[in-house]
């Protein structure tokens, strides 16, 4: 289905009003004001729409950022209607974003994502070859949309050097370096005592479908958040980055792979 979807830059106020409709449909919350997105668009921002014929089925909203040292593109929101979320549309939109960003002179794109959302982790770290650079505890505070309600909004911040894409390397999984394991009942098992900051190549397990876990057992979801937070903070604070993500199709969980910067 998504092969017929066209991805193009949004340029008009009418385009941005259509984007609001998609945003509201995806998150069931008040969308960004058009005057704000239009201002971002005209001051270094990149805003894309995905169209199936005349219908907008997805959008990507990013704006210019500066940290006191370098200019970068801050990718704030990627929203796709549910029936269009497979077949690689998200990846296509990110690659189009990188293409447009390069034309504008950007070299770095950054964004945040929920580390327990495995599909996003696989796209960001494995397919796009970006890296997870920082961990942000409860980054947005309390949020009431369907995806975030009831849980702290922890995030990993991605840094994507769009001029330095590298092919994925073969990773040998090592159970002796698994800092978060999973019991037979799907409960996270912390093994932080094995961590040695001198060693390289650590793994952290996460659920394949965190939203399913959350709907079935909110307390289990909170336990996943807390235990993985402890592992992620320990790794990031000791100079490691999230370098890849391994899908485990035979089980209900997958793995982050951390290396030294």
TrEMBL record:
Gene3D superfamilies: 3.40.630.30
Listed Pfam families: Acetyltransf_1
Organism name: Virgibacillus litoralis
Coiled-coil regions listed: none
Domain N-acetyltransferase stretches: 5-169
Name under which the protein is recorded: GNAT superfamily acetyltransferase
PANTHER family linked to this entry: GCN5-RELATED N-ACETYLTRANSFERASE, N-ACETYLTRANSFERASE DOMAIN-CONTAINING PROTEIN
Signal sequence region: none
């Amino acid at each position: 289905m998504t092969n017929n979807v066209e991805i193009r830059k949004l340029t008009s106020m009418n385009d941005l009003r259509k984007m609001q409709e998609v945003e509201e449909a995806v998150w069931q919350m008040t969308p960004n004001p058009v005057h704000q997105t239009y201002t971002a668009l005209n001051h270094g921002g990149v805003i894309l729409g995905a169209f199936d014929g005349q219908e907008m089925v997805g959008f990507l909203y990013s704006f210019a950022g500066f940290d006191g040292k370098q200019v970068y593109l801050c990718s704030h929101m990627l929203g796709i209607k549910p029936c269009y979320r497979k077949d690689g549309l998200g990846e296509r939109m990110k690659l189009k974003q990188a293409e447009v960003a390069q034309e504008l002179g950007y070299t770095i794109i950054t964004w945040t994502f929920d580390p327990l959302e495995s599909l996003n982790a696989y796209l960001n770290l494995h397919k796009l070859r970006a890296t997870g650079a920082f961990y942000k505890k409860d980054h947005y505070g309390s949020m009431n949309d369907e995806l975030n309600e009831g849980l702290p909004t922890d995030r990993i911040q991605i840094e994507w050097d769009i001029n330095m894409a590298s092919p994925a390397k073969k990773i040998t999984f090592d159970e002796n370096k698994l800092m978060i394991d999973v019991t037979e009942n799907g409960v996270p098992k912390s093994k932080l005592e094995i961590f040695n900051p001198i060693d390289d190549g650590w793994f952290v397990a996460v659920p394949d479908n965190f939203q399913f876990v959350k709907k079935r057992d909110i307390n289990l979801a909170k336990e996943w958040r807390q235990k993985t937070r402890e592992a992620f903070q320990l790794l990031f604070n000791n100079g490691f980055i999230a370098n890849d993500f391994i899908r485990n199709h035979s089980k209900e969980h997958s793995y982050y792979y951390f290396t030294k910067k």
